[in-house]
Design brief:
Elements lengths: L1 H24 L7 H6 L6 H10 L6 H13 L13 H36 L3 H15 L2 H15 L11 H8 L1 H27 L2 H8 L4 H12 L1 H25 L5 H11 L2 H29 L1 H8 L1
Helix pairs in contact: 1-14, 5-6, 5-9, 5-12, 6-9, 7-9, 9-12, 10-11, 12-13, 12-14, 13-14, 14-15
Length: about 325
């Protein structure tokens, strides 16, 4: 419990510092909300003053930050400068697509990355060489190019999957987002498979594994209890990093497949200088990164109890 509490306190501190950076960073870019709203037109000082009052631009900086943070915690991210809609409503309409796409790609990374890595690490021969070659190829191919290739082959030539839209319902989303999820997961899947193979190989030659084999422990038990479990620490670190990166890089896939996710919304908001939307999406990404890192830390403690005992001490 002490280990969990310490990680939660660290996460809260990261959230506060990151939110301050996100909020203050918007004031470092050229332009301001009132200049964007007037679009270069000449307006009276009264109109300009009313705009500043509406967006609380005359308040002290720390007051503006505190009001924005407390509202964001309650789910209120303000109003979009371009559409005049609540940012929360814009995010609520687009966030499910991004979450489904990211989770779908994450499942592919975990299942196939670890599975292929374990098989390649325990078996020598043609399959291992195929996994090594495939991991090098998957890591080298850019995500956008992989998306175009999958669209041309499986969407255009074969016609197996749709190449536009996110579908509706669980089955429809699963069908429509298969190609985007595969394209998004390829680089991370390749890295996880390669790291898993290397880690399993190194753990297979460790003293406690060799001792278990010498004592006659069944091979399957040695593989899963001693080899695979102890090799998961570095793999967990890589998976946590890449799962967080999936959410950040999803905008490339959303743009290629014309999906209505927050990645495409972020690109559009940056082009239009929609400060409220950019701040909200940046804060969501920070929270997602923090929660994933927390899950990785807790998973460390499950895999190796010495970690939580050491932190507690």
């Amino acid at each position: 419990m002490r280990y969990v509490i310490s990680r939660l306190w660290s996460l809260c501190l990261v959230f506060v510092v990151s939110s301050f950076v996100v909020f203050s960073g918007m004031y470092l870019v050229p332009g301001s909300p009132e200049n964007f709203l007037v679009q270069g037109r000449t307006v009276s000082p009264e109109v300009l003053a009313s705009i500043r009052v509406q967006y609380s631009l005359d308040d002290p900086f720390l007051t503006r930050y505190w009001n924005w943070l407390t509202s964001a915690v309650q789910g209120d991210f303000g109003r979009s400068l371009t559409t005049r809609q609540d940012v929360s409503n814009l995010l609520a309409a687009r966030l499910p697509t991004t979450l489904f796409l990211t989770l779908y790609a994450g499942v592919l990374v975990v299942v196939f990355g670890i599975g292929l890595g374990v098989i390649a690490g325990t078996r020598e021969g043609v399959f291992e060489k195929i996994v090594v070659f495939g991991s090098n190829l998957g890591f080298a191919v850019p995500t956008f190019f992989a998306a175009l290739l999958l669209m041309a082959v499986f969407g255009g030539a074969l016609g197996w999957f749709p190449v536009t839209g996110s579908g509706s319902g669980f089955g429809g989303r699963l069908f429509h987002l298969t190609l985007p999820a595969v394209a998004l997961s390829l680089p991370s899947l390749a890295v996880v498979a390669r790291i898993t193979r290397t880690s399993v190989r190194e753990e297979s030659g460790s003293d406690h594994v060799l001792m278990a084999v010498a004592r006659g422990v069944p091979r399957r038990l040695v593989l899963w209890r001693h080899t695979v479990r102890n090799s998961l620490l570095p793999v967990t670190t890589v998976i946590g990093t890449h799962l967080a990166a999936l959410l950040a890089s999803a905008f490339v896939i959303e743009y290629a497949f014309t999906l209505d996710g927050i990645g495409a919304l972020l690109v559009d908001a940056v082009h239009r200088q929609d400060f409220a939307v950019v701040q909200a999406i940046a804060l969501i990404l920070v929270v997602a990164f923090g929660l994933i890192n927390l899950a990785v830390d807790l998973l460390y403690a499950v895999i190796d109890p010495r970690i939580r005992l050491g932190k507690a001490a």
